[in-house]
């Protein structure tokens, strides 16, 4: 049942303007992955942190866990770093305060295939 709901959401998300824009920074999943492999590359937080580093190269470079291997705690740590980097960029570079609720990295990190990540990434699209 969950797969029947998730697959159309995944396809819609992977063709969204956010993902299209993110792909301009470089290929996801080695450039020839399936939608699911590219989605995992996003949800692990490694690729998105690299994108954020390109946007703000002078940011404090925190250690990203490059080999997440479906480990929820490593995924949560990477996504937490990403959210912190976005907040810092807005406050220090743009001198703006983010007033909207930010994505819940605990929920996303524990169950990235629930569809919650897709909805929360749309929030990040508004921010970036």
From TrEMBL:
The lineage of its organism: Eukaryota, Metazoa, Chordata, Craniata, Vertebrata. Pfam families: HOOK_N (PF19047). One of its GO terms (biological process) is cytoskeleton-dependent intracellular transport. One of its GO terms (molecular function) is dynein light intermediate chain binding. Keywords: Coiled coil, Cytoplasm. Its main location: cytoplasm. PROSITE patterns: CH. This is Calponin-homology (CH) domain-containing protein. It is found in: Cytoplasm. GO terms for cellular component: centrosome; cytoplasm. Residues 12-128 form the Calponin-homology (CH) domain. InterPro entries: CH_dom, CH_dom_sf, HOOK_N.
